[in-house]
Amino acid sequence: MAPIAKAMMKLNFCSLSSGSSGNCYYLGNEFHGILIDAGISATSIRRFLKNMDISMQAIMGVLITHNHTDHIKGLEVLTRKTGIPAFTTQKVWKSIPGPQKRISSDCIREIPLKEKFHLAGFDIEAFPVCHDAPETVGYHICYGDKKITIATDLGHICQTAAPYIRAANLLVIESNYDEEMLVNGHYPHYLKTRIKSDHGHLGNHQASAFLAENIGDNLKHICLAHLSKNNNTPELVLQTLQRTFSERGIILNGQPKISVLNRNMPTGMIRLI
Ligand SMILES: [Zn+2]
Ligand SMILES: [Zn+2]
Questions:
Q1: Engineered SS bond to 15: which of 62, 96, 133, 261, CB 3.0-4.6 Å?
Q2: Each residue of 36-68: pLDDT tens digit?
Q3: CA of residue 237 to ligand 2 center, whole Å
């Protein structure tokens, strides 16, 4: 992208909702914004953005990660009422189920995997992650020298996804379940097995271990995301992270900053520039 005078630059991130009941994230620069997933109602998206003084007209597109309801629930209404285009790989688009397929094809922009495209001033790359949908992607988004990686549904961190996660200045990464709560909880055996599998969700212990092993000076902010309603709590997420870090002799002195994203409401705006 063309260099932009630093004084003019602005880069904000906010989670509108994060968890197994619905996901939607906002990233905006001084000119435009984008959304990542539309897994809450279009009304909620509109209301949350309005409360943050963000105009719907500023939103240039919504990036879709995969076809699960908690990522696309509001997509059909959002695209129909606002005309905001949805960006997604061909495989993800083909896998979107019937009712959501009412989305006008005019609103769909197919994107390649692992190839940069430009939108609203951002350079964006979709990368594959391991999850039990026909295709699931994370997004690596660059603006100036800032790098944001969003990986919210992944059973494990594979070799393809790891470099995108390591490169982030702001990382949004799944910390879905506490292992003990899941094992001792009331979910049927098949569901517990699915969640824990390599194509299910990332547990607190997995996210913490990866971060402890891979944390670098470039990482300024970690957002722990997509918490399970029934098998996790924000306190357990932080306890697991702190325990894992201290076991490995890692002391956090306020950096990177760590946020646990709210399941049903926006988590405060994070200013990257
Ligand atoms: Zn999900
Ligand atoms: Zn999913």
A1: 261
A2: 999 999 999 999 999 999 999 999 999 999 999
A3: 19
| Residues, Cβ < 5 Å to ion ligand 1 | 70, 153
pTM higher than 0.90: yes
Ligand nearest to the CA of 66: 2
Query: Which is it for the CA torsion 214, 215, 221, 223, positive or negative?
Result: positive
Task: Please report, for the chain, how many H helices and E strands are present, in that order.
Answer: 9, 14
Q: Is residue 3 very low, low, confident or very high in pLDDT (cuts 50, 70, 90)?
A: low
- Cα–ligand 2 centroid distance for 89 (angstroms): 15
Which ligand has an atom closest to residue 227 CA? 1
Distance from the CA of 273 to the center of ligand 2, in angstroms? 31
In angstroms, the CA 1 to CA 46 distance is 29
Ligand closest to Cα of 133 equals: 2
108-110, strands of its sheet edge to edge: 108-110, 86-88, 59-63, 33-36, 24-29, 11-17, 267-271
119-165 residue pLDDT tens: 999 999 999 999 999 999 999 999 999 999 999 999 999 999 999 99
Q: What is the DSSP letter of 203?
A: B
Give me ligand 1 centre to Cα 5, in Å.
37
